[in-house]
What we know:
One of its GO terms (cellular component) is extracellular region. Keywords: Cell wall, Cell wall biogenesis/degradation, Glycoprotein, Secreted, Signal. It is found in: Secreted, Cell wall. Pfam families: DPBB_1 (PF03330), Expansin_C (PF01357). The protein is an alpha+beta fold and about 325 residues long. It folds into two domains: about 30-40 and about 65-210, Barwin-like endoglucanases, CATH 2.40.40.10; about 220-315, Sandwich (Immunoglobulin-like). The protein is about 10% helix and about 30% strand. The protein is built from four helices and 17 strands. The strands form three sheets. The chain has a six-stranded mixed β-barrel. Strands 13-14-10-9-17 form a five-stranded antiparallel β-sheet, with no helix packed on it. Strands 12-11-15-16 form a four-stranded antiparallel β-sheet, with no helix packed on it. The chain starts with a helix and ends in a 6-residue tail after the last strand.
Amino acid sequence: MASSYKQKQRAVAAALLFLLVAHASCSTKQHKSSKQHKAHAAPIPTTPPATAPTTTPPPPSSYSSPPSGGGYPPANNGSGADSGSAGGWLNARATWYGAPNGAGPDDNGGACGFKGVNMPPFSAMTSCGNEPLFKDGKGCGSCYQIRCLAHPACSGIPETVIITDMNYYPVAPYHFDLSGTAFGAMAKDDRNDELRHAGIIDIQFKRVACQYPGLTVTFHIERGSNPNYLAVLVEYSNGDGDVVQVDLMESRAEDGEPTGVWEPMRESWGSIWRMDTRRPLQGPFSLRVTNESGKTLVADNVIPADWQPDNVYSSIVQFD
């Protein structure tokens, strides 16, 4: 009898440990990063409950995406807070990963392909999102206001975060696995560490328009690109923030003028789009970007004929 009870205790403890690890893991895909990032969760109870938990996180595909695409409410930026679903707020859960005051991933990147997310304009206010937020990469760059109210250390003041990574182990229909910086930003003054110590908390969120003052839509040519393979990271889109399609127009070799023909690029991963050809691509290149609302933006001849991999080319255009 005693042996059976001890076996039951061990089984319960193992189940709790599995759930806590699964609930708190945010990682980039293996071919994008060799590192996996674990979020911080509350300590495991020393005494297990009489029965093991009976629920596990449902698969990400069972969740629907939050409202999006135009019509964003004005940013609230600390001007007071309503409750529940009023004002477009939805319920979610949040964890955090990486350094307490860091941007999340050790390499300051993530499954969206963005680079230097610890620096402006991201400024470490970043988050992994589960599938309804990440949207298989098409949610990359989306902006959300988040706030917490339930914990004593919560300020209740909304903070804006950007989806830059993927969360494969959600603990709720909507799960933000935040950078340590973003998680702590929801706290009252000087209580950031107290809030981070909570590990997993209930929050509220809503989609808001992205704003990159002084910046235009920018294109980063990925390493490994060559005349037959062009991979482009799209960054700093106002409004929706995300990208659902990129099209490319080449130039004629004889005079360098645009061909007038748009060719669709394929989503490589995250916010990186690629063009594969059997013949060398002919620049300069124009790029047409379409966001989730269906708005398009054309950057004429934004990538020169003598482009180089790992270079950044800024356009002179921006979404309204």
